[in-house]
Amino acid sequence: MYKHTLELPKNNSHLTILGIESSCDDTSASIYSDGKICSNVVASQKIHEDFGGVVPEWASRKHQQNILPTVQMALKNAGLAMSDIDGIACTQGPGLMGSLLVGHSFTKGLAIAADIPYVNVDHIDAHVLAHFIDGDIPSLPFLCLLVSGGHTQIVKVNEDYTIKILGKTIDDAAGEAFDKAGKMLNLPYPSGPMIDKLAKEGDAKRFKFNTPKVGALDFSFSGLKTSILYFLQKEVRNDADFILKNKNDLCASIQYTIVSYLMSKLEKAILETGISQIGIGGGVAANSLLRSSLEGLAAKHNAAGYIPKFEYCTDNAAMIAFAGKVKLEQHNYGTLTDVCFTRK
After folding, report:
1. Checking CA distances to 85, which of 59, 190, 200, 250 falls within 20 to 30 Å?
2. Measured distance CA(238)–CA(312) in Å, rounded
3. Coil, helix or strand for 64?
4. What pTM did the predictor assign?
5. Quick check: helix, strand or coil at residue 219?
């Protein structure tokens, strides 16, 4: 039976970790070694753009095709061989079950073949820990607003890198709100980047949309999507070209509403916890207004604001490799009976 224990070097920064990410449609592999990311390879599946969203079965089949060459390219780019790897980290969840199974099963087999340990990594936790990979690194404790297509959370990172959820969405995620709003505006998928681009030429205060009154630090976006839908339906009945004529202002107003709502909750978390180290993570952290708003909020509260490199905001294996390093140092190894999970 597979059971491996790892004797850690006295200097843990010398651990060499292979990270594998396959939670959605991107297959990614990365090498973390000597305290830095040596390679970070991503194989994307552009075909999903034609369907307005990710097709789960197609995604899992493409992962099967991409995972081996992606890992091989990551090793090649780092100038390493499997014999140099101390441990493997892979995404256990949340994500698409078929996609997760490909990466998780591949990792188990590779760990057995190489006789090295593997660790399971929570995809959402990895987005948060991406702040600690390199560059300007926050002090602990740390508050992070995690914003992606499937999740919206405010979390606290403790001194031992354990993560506590302080608030989360009770229904839809902010990233989904961007994409659904984009679909209503006849924008291509994924809509978030296009909304961000068009918003730069629009008036963010022209149109008003309702945000839900949810208690504590939790979020809700289903009501906002409904508010946008009903508003557009009403205006289009009066003017069939309303969306086309006002697309920039609509994008700016929708983006402003979502970002302002997110920032209001993060500000509340700052006041409640007294933590002055704050950041944003996840795919939506690439949004320009969200990034500038984080900087403004940090300045307002005399706090330090942090945003990971763009390549660490979208789904990637570098964050999985670093999170895996943390778990290996804690001797939190995976076993052959571990299973994937789809929601958190």
Report:
1. 59
2. 44
3. helix
4. 0.90
5. strand
- The string of pLDDT tens digits covering residues 196-255 is 999 999 999 999 998 888 889 999 999 999 999 999 999 999 999 999 999 999 999 999
| 260 domain-assigned | yes
Q: Are residues 91 and 149 in the same domain?
A: no
**Hey, how many other C-beta atoms are within 10 angstroms of the C-beta on 119?**
28
Query: Which helix (H) or strand (E) is 269 found in, with range?
Result: helix 247-273
* Six-digit token string for 60: 């899992």
Buried b (16+ CB within 10 A) or exposed e, 277-286: bbbbbbbbbb
CA 195, CA 226: separation in Å to the nearest integer?
18
Rg (CA), the chain: 21
Amino acid letter at 67? I
User: What CATH number is given to the structural domain containing 94?
Assistant: 3.30.420.40
- Cβ 25 vs Cβ 99: under 8 Å: yes
Residue type, 275: I
108 sits in which H/E element: helix 97-114
DSSP 169: B
Question: How many C-beta neighbours within 10 Å does residue 234 have?
Answer: 10
Of 308, 300, 317, 226, residue with least CA distance to 263: 300
Strand locations in 236-313, DSSP E? 277-281, 304-306
Structural domain total, the chain: 2
C-alpha dihedral over 317, 319, 325, 326, to 10 degrees? -150
Six-digit token pair at 168? 């989360």
The domain in which residue 241 lies consists of 138-308
- Find out whether 285 and 291 touch, Cβ atoms under 8 Å: yes
